[in-house]
Amino acid sequence: MSCSRRHFIAGMGAVIFMTGPVNRTLAQTMSINGIRYGMVYDETRCIGCTACMDACREVNKVPEGVSRLNIIRSGPTGEFPEAKYQFYRHSCQHCDNPPCVDVCPTGASYKDAATGIVDVNPDRCVGCQYCIAACPYRVRFIHPVRKTADKCNFCRDTNLAQGKLPACVESCPTKALTFGNLDDPNSEIVKLIENRTTYRAKVHLGTEPKMYRIPSKHGEIKG
Amino acid sequence: MGSLRSLFKGGLLMLVSMFALTAMSSSAEPVPEQKTEVSSEYKVELQRNPDYACTQCHKDAKDGMHGAHSKAINPNNQLPVTCTNCHGKITPEHRNGVADAMRFNEDMFPVDKQNQVCMTCHQPEKLRTALWAHDVHILKTSCASCHQLHPTKDPVQGLDQKGQIKLCVDCHSKQQQQYHKEKETP
């Protein structure tokens, strides 16, 4: 056989060259073919009752003083009795290109390949707070009991694991929240995004957030 | 004659002593008299119970007003709040069930008519400070659909955060159900 050292090295080079891109395309197809969870927050339907905040705290055992989800109320605009208020959901945007994952030195912060959900592995987190600094949406915090980074994960380990919808979606009395697969063209969420005017916060940063918002009719869009 | 003079003398003595006594007693308490003079503006006191005519028939409501409204002073006339302040004056047809006296949280009167009564005393700024949601409900819901106006304690005022959220959720979920029902059966 003429399997010289030269041929062997050239062959291995070819194998490495080929497997590299193949792995990458494989990873990409996984995230595209899997579920890509997203959410639509309808500001026109939200009444600011904060039932979602309460439900999130209860389901995910979030201690007092910190929160995974906040409904920020602004206003009033206009005069009594026509005064109007605006609501804004302040929580993880589940970026497709998440800066918090990029900066994490231990790999605790990750994007789940099967669902597209950005999550934190508390066993790996050392509490360095790089992710808190990197997140342009300022949604991360240090869990006061676990001393690790924490944030919304669409109830991945609680409600979603039990086959239920995220706590906020379940608790909303006006159905202002729609949760579903952004890659499924027949899902309710995709139809909603197709039919309604939506915006996402800070898209110019290239984070590709999966939190879509239907803008309020009053006041300015705050994206 | 002698006896008559002595009687006169005795009478005189008694008169003098009585005068002295009254003078002493008046000098003993001069302060309260002055006080009454300072606040001697003429004040009208109600001679009869303004709610008498109502409670003759509405006997269950005789002692019906408790809590904040029972001691409230109407800011528009500085007098205690009466039945007619809120419920308005009745017509001769009142007994036949006509829509004259204001009924709160009933469909007999539109929401804006009901709430106008409350708004004659309750100012928007204070309502907003108490709860922002007053602003967005005032044209749509009657005050009485959340508040109770007669009992000692308005159950809404003692609500904690959870109770407040529950109130919003219960009402708005019902509204959604009704909306979908109407949509399905045109």
UniProtKB/TrEMBL annotation, chain A:
InterPro entries, per the entry: 4Fe4S_Fe-S-bd, 4Fe4S_Fe_S_CS, Cyt_c_NO2Rdtase_NrfC, ET_IronSulfur_Cluster-Binding
Keyword Iron-sulfur (UniProt): yes
Domain of life assignment: Bacteria
MF term (GO), any: 4 iron, 4 sulfur cluster binding
Domain (4Fe-4S ferredoxin-type) ranges: 37-65, 83-114, 116-145
One Pfam family, short name: Fer4_11
Record keywords: 4Fe-4S, Iron, Iron-sulfur, Metal-binding, Repeat
Protein name (record): Cytochrome c nitrite reductase Fe-S protein
From TrEMBL, chain B:
Leader sequence segment: 1-28
Domain Cytochrome c-type protein NrfB-like: 83-171
Entry keywords, A to Z: Signal
Keyword match Acyltransferase: no
Pfam family, one: Cytochrom_c_NrfB-like
Domain of life: Bacteria
A GO biological process held by the record: anaerobic respiration
GO CC terms in record: periplasmic space
Transmembrane segments: none
GO molecular-function term, one example from the UniProt record: oxidoreductase activity
InterPro entries, alphabetized: Cyt_c_NrfB, Cytochrom_c_NrfB-like_dom, Multihaem_cyt_sf, Multiheme_Cytochr_ET
Cross-referenced PANTHER family: CYTOCHROME C-TYPE PROTEIN NRFB, DISSIMILATORY SULFITE REDUCTASE SIRA
Name of protein: Cytochrome c nitrite reductase pentaheme subunit
Naturally occurring in which organism (per UniProt): Limnobaculum parvum
